[in-house]
Amino acid sequence: MEVLAQLLLVVANTLQIYSLILLVRVLLTWFPNLDWSNPVLSTVSSITDPYLGIFRGLIPPIGGLDLSALLAFLALSFGQQILGSLSMSVLAGGF
Predict the structure, then answer these.
(1) Contact criterion met (CB below 8 Å) for 26 and 46
(2) Residue 34 in contact with residue 41, Cβ under 8 Å?
């Protein structure tokens, strides 16, 4: 059971790293003159755009602002909390 708990923690930590990459992507959108053909920027974009696309379909831009990233961050945070709780539950023997 400890292996399962460790696996859940690894996935939760991976989601946290993805949240940081997503934050970088959102902050980079504030600079409209960036060259997105840059390998680093295109990699960040290719990693995050499919996930953001899910939420862009749910929340249309309001007044030119894309608020879908807020829902994306909330979903990642919720996933991290659930995985962390499950991991602690497994370690405590309650699973």
Answers:
(1) no
(2) yes
Give phi and psi for 81, each to the nearest 5. -65, -40
Q: Where do the domains of the chain lie?
A: 2-92
Categorise residue 71: left if φ over 0, alpha if ψ from -120 to 50, beta otherwise.
Answer: alpha
How far apart CA 1 and CA 7 sit, in angstroms, is: 10
Tens-place pLDDT, residues 32-46: 899 989 999 999 999
All residues at 6 or more sequence positions from 54 whose CB lies less than 8 Å from its CB, including other chains: 72
Rounded to whole angstroms, the Cα distance separating 16 from 38 reads 25
pTM (predicted TM-score): 0.85
Handedness of CA 87, 51, 38, 35 (dihedral sign): negative
Alpha-carbon 18 to chain mean position: 5
